[in-house]
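Table S2 (continued). Query chain:
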Amino acid sequence: MVTPHGNNRPPLWRQQHLVVLAVITTLVLLGETNVAIIEEGDCHGHGGGCHYHWILCTRNKNTFPNKYLFFLQSFSYLAVQQHTNNGNNQTIHKHLAKPGTYKGKVWHNERTVSVRTLGETSFARCDVHTVLSEDGSTTINDWMFLEEINAVNIVVQTTEGKFIVFQQRKYAIPGVIISPVGGFIDEGESPLTAAKREVVEELGMGSRGTLEKVKSMNNPNRIRFPPDVVIDAIARTALPDEIDPTTTAVSGRGGGLSSGRIPPNENDPDWVFLGRYRTAANRGGGFLYSYLLKNAIPISQGSGNRIYGGRSGDDESQKILYLSQEEVFTALSEGKFQEVKWAATFALSLLHLKDGMPGCCTGDQYYP
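Corresponding output:
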């Protein structure tokens, strides 16, 4: 039976400590067993590796009644767990945001009984759901679920047919990888507007249609504008977000999920919507909206080269590469797009460009 280090034992441990010692003393007096108190570092002969201050070991395990052993182990486990969890929780929660900070929508559907939040930040939240079984006969009480703000990935192809990617490292992926443009969808922003904004922020580029809108709102004689001017024009000319009516009953805050499709009156044929996809079917992870931007051109000052100093939401350094279509095929086949969302977005883009696969979701499935 293990006890925690030092003088930080909680009051409950001291109470349990006295109860356990009283039980042990009674058992010894009754002749049930012999008990030895072993100092740290001197218990390997008793079959245990001691990592705490001291340990209680039974000398005759075969004759020690199981009911007593279970009782003592339970008290020991509870005491150590309370001490450990208290310390860990204090450390973890010190770095987490206050409840209610998470800005995304919260998933629930007709099978959701309850949701308990373990921790959150402004862009992610870890929950435990209680979920009804499919036939409604039982409940699952430990359904781990990760909420993450929905995101966009954009494959950007220039007027010369080159694909722009980032060479970089990511915290959760070993080695050097390549990735498309991408980022979170801001609150109140449609996926298409987020996609346009991310391309401007990270590359200083956009569609010919976007450039014409910026020029009409600012100076028709210019061809390059400050990034903030371009992003402001994108936001001001954005069409209303369209909600997929099939999801209004199954998502949380703010109603249903955005359809992600490009409205017919957008009048920008260079943008292609490739679909909306759940990151992890049973564990959440947000939804991804995939797009292809064809015939991309520089529209921000200083853009259109390999050293553009655009904004990235992460702290990893990145290098801009221009790949041919054949090089993208090779990168896909060699697993260079190490995140499945990146690989899927590039594969869908190549299917559209090479084999004429139509863009996703022209409206029929959302608006019959």
